[in-house]
Write a structure and sequence with these properties.
Elements lengths: L2 E9 L3 H10 L4 E8 L6 E8 L2 E8 L6 H9 L2 E9 L2 H10 L4 E8 L5 E5 L9 E5 L5
Parallel strand pairs: 1-4, 5-8
Antiparallel strand pairs: 1-5, 2-3, 3-4, 6-7, 7-8
């Protein structure tokens, strides 16, 4: 299995302000902006490219139930997760199970860009929120 850094997710309070920072200070490019009200997401997302790397800016759309809102309330703004692109998500999930690493099963989904993703249980990753993802339509 190959693991390649896919993107870093950053929890923000004000998406417009964060986009301007990434564009004006870091010379980033806004690639996409969308809103997801799906249960367990409830966020507005801006995908930025900075120096050939992807950054997801994540702002909560519901301050009560959004996981991003909970994260900001508990830990503050900043790095939320690190995502790794794997060759085959199904195979990676089998490897995790064999190694005793749990996932947050309710996070398994396909996003607006056709990316399949799931989050690993932070209790098994020393507290880091890690996303595994693949792009089945691009293989």
């Amino acid at each position: 299995m190959d693991y390649k850094l896919d993107h870093i997710g950053i929890a923000v309070r004000r998406l417009d302000v964060s986009i301007l920072f990434y564009e004006n200070v870091l010379k980033g490019t806004l690639l996409d902006r969308y809103r997801s009200e799906a249960k367990g997401v409830e966020s507005e997302i801006a995908i930025m490219e900075v120096g050939g790397n992807r950054i997801e800016l994540l702002a909560p759309t519901n301050n009560t139930t959004s996981p991003i809102a909970r994260f900001i309330n508990q830990k503050g703004k900043g790095v939320h997760h690190i995502a790794y692109n794997v060759n085959d998500l199904d195979e990676a999930l089998k490897e995790l199970e064999n190694k005793g690493v749990r996932t947050l099963e309710d996070t398994l989904r396909i996003n607006n860009h056709g990316r399949r993703l799931i989050y690993l249980n932070p209790a098994d990753t020393d507290g880091t929120i890690i996303e595994y993802c693949d792009y089945p339509d691009q293989n």
